[in-house]
Design goal:
single chain, 245 residues, alpha/beta, five-stranded parallel beta sheet, 10 helices, 5 strands, 44% helix, globular, disordered N terminus
Length: 245
């Protein structure tokens, strides 16, 4: 993992420079615009015997620069079906979203669903890190998202992010614990690092070296599927778990 994180630091620095992500980066679009982009599709209503899963996140969820059907939601849905789990996975990812933007559009997204989802995947924080935003603000925004999900009776799985080494040790010390801390606080499932297993492998990444290509999404979905399947099981005393490899 250490070697992959070193590569991550170099790659993220390139993205950081070429995309202009910084503390002075422009704010995300207004919440209403973001919400409209993430509005669930018309066919989001699952059959009565199918689970409803919402993938609520940023470009890693949205299928950035991929053809229709190659993003995380449809690929994960297929991976679950191969495990015998009938589920409708709704893509509620918006490229470029920060945790603040996600927090702003959460209620709109959930209210637009046909019913309360059985599970919500939450994958935000990477853009906060690349912009060098305050880890405390990231924590507060994610906490608010999980608090709202709990209030609505929605189970959550967090897909975490790690700070790029070029952000410095102090930033990493504040940022990296956010996801495991909140998973423990809200008894949520945790996949510690969204890009684990693909970062540094050019055959699984787009040309930017950060976003997964179609093969990379398939790898991520194959790793997430067993955890999602377990999270969809009836609640039990042993409902918190993670995977780091």
């Amino acid at each position: 993992m250490a070697g992959r994180l070193t590569q991550y630091g170099a790659l993220a620095l390139i993205v950081h420079l070429t995309t202009g992500c910084s503390r002075d980066a422009p704010p995300p679009p207004p919440a209403t615009e973001q919400a409209q982009k993430a509005q669930p599709p018309a066919d989001a209503t699952p059959a009565a015997d199918r689970k409803l899963v919402v993938a609520f996140g940023d470009s890693l969820y949205a299928g950035y620069n991929l053809d229709q059907g190659q993003g995380l939601a449809p690929v994960l849905e297929h991976a679950l079906a191969e495990r015998g789990i009938q589920a409708r996975v709704v893509n509620a990812g918006v490229s470029g979203d920060t945790t603040a933007a996600g927090r702003a559009r959460l209620a709109f997204t959930l209210d637009g669903l046909p019913r309360t989802p059985d599970l919500m995947l939450v994958g935000l924080g990477g853009n906060d890190m690349l912009r060098g935003l305050s880890p405390q603000d990231t924590r507060d925004n994610l906490d608010a998202i999980l608090r709202e999900a709990k209030a609505r009776g929605i189970k959550v799985m967090l897909t975490g992010m790690l700070a790029s080494p070029n952000m410095g040790a102090q930033y990493a010390a504040a940022f990296n614990p956010i996801f495991p801390d909140l998973a423990r606080k809200y008894n949520a499932a945790l996949y510690p690092f969204m890009l684990d297993g693909i970062l540094g492998d050019r055959t699984l990444l787009l040309a930017d070296g950060i976003h997964p290509n179609a093969r990379g999404v398939t790898v991520i979905a194959s790793r997430l599927a067993p955890l999602v399947a377990r999270a969809l099981e009836p609640a039990s005393a042993d409902c918190c778990f993670s995977r780091s490899k």
